[in-house]
Specification:
The chain is an alpha/beta fold. It has helices at about 10, 15-30, 45-60, 75-80, 105-115, 140-150, 170-175, 185-190, 200-210, 215-225, 230-260, 285-300, 310-320; strands at about 35-40, 65-70, 90-95, 100, 125, 155-160, 195, 275-280, 305. It has a 5-stranded parallel beta sheet with strand order 2-5-6-1-7, sandwiched between helices. Helix 3 runs parallel beside helix 4 (about 75-80).
Length: about 325
């Protein structure tokens, strides 16, 4: 009988290089601002409203905050929520024969520097994360402004719709027939400290659209005939919820890996689904395997294949 080998104490010690890398990552994360994204299936679900409501609660806690830019789109209920919140002056950007009003990145950085020693990190509210800045701006995209604010240690709250996620852009275009050219990298979305899903059932969203609470009447009629068809809204809602669930699942897997490799050796539990491909001796088995492999790549799930030979079982039964 084999004699079990004693466990070396060194085998139980955490990898010092891994610990150092984790500490350095945590320190870098602590210096960086935190991003919160109010995320929805489409315009009109209430993302900006939810962000401003949360801002009033944050202001009541005494933390320094300022509204960098909010697009109300003429919605009275959203405009009313701006009352009482400090607003950053917008920057004039001459463009051709007119002057555009844009977010003032330098003013926001100055606000952050002025409140760097506060008990709570400075917070900037910046609507519509996927927005394209006016020509001549420091960055072509608003999400790049956000990255500079985060690097400066400033917290940012922003809003975006699922169709603006880069990885889902083609999918949304196939569903709605409308291609959105303003996109946000998935890396920024996944790196956000918090993603708040602002959800509204399609029928309620269509009622808001008909009541003129999403677009002005002329735009609302056109939107209802195109992008805001009920089937589109159902599909977009599913995409938004699924993408958020994928993000949470990734966070859970990261935590599990850290717990398994950490000094405490914390036990972890299985939280993931898995796919099972069932194939037989007939035609179609290769297609099933390929389809399952593709799905597992997309969803990062483990999978198993089971080969069932019913004819062999029948032969065994006859022989018996």
């Amino acid at each position: 009988m084999d004699t079990p080998h004693p466990v070396d104490a060194d085998d139980l010690r955490p990898d010092p290089d891994a610990l150092l890398a984790r500490v350095q990552q945590q320190e870098a994360q602590a210096r960086r601002g935190r991003l919160k994204i109010f995320f929805g299936a489409s315009a009109g679900v209430g993302k900006t409203y939810a962000m401003l409501s949360a801002a009033h609660a944050a202001q009541a806690q005494g933390g320094p905050l300022v509204v960098g830019l909010v697009e109300t789109h003429g919605r009275a209920e959203t405009e009313a929520l701006l009352a009482g919140l400090p607003l950053l002056a917008l920057k004039d950007m001459p463009y051709r024969d007119r002057v555009l009003k844009e977010f003032d990145l330098d003013a926001a950085l100055a606000f952050g520097a002025a409140h760097a020693g506060a008990a709570e990190p400075p917070l900037v509210l910046l609507d519509e994360l996927a927005h394209s800045n006016a020509p001549g701006s420091r960055h072509p995209k608003r999400w790049q402004d956000v990255e500079e604010l985060l690097a400066a240690g400033i917290d940012v709250w922003s809003t975006m719709n699922v169709q603006h996620l880069e990885s889902l852009n083609d999918v949304v275009g196939g569903i709605t027939g409308i291609r959105v050219w303003e996109t946000v990298p998935d890396t920024l979305f996944d790196a956000a400290e918090d993603v708040v899903v602002v959800d509204l059932p399609p029928d309620e969203l269509l009622a808001r659209l008909a009541a003129g609470k999403v677009y002005i009447p002329a735009q609302a009629q056109q939107a209802a005939a195109n992008f805001f068809r009920k089937g589109n809204l159902i599909a977009l809602r599913e995409l938004a919820l699924r993408r958020t669930a994928d993000r949470v699942d990734t966070q859970m897997q990261d935590w599990r890996r850290a717990a398994q490799g950490g000094a405490l050796g914390q036990p972890v539990w299985a939280t993931r689904d898995a796919l099972l491909a069932c194939i037989g001796p007939g035609d179609g088995g290769e297609a099933v395997v390929r389809c399952t492999a593709r799905l597992t790549t997309q969803s990062d799930l483990p999978w198993h294949a089971v080969f069932v030979d019913a004819q062999a079982r029948q032969r065994v039964g006859q022989a018996a």
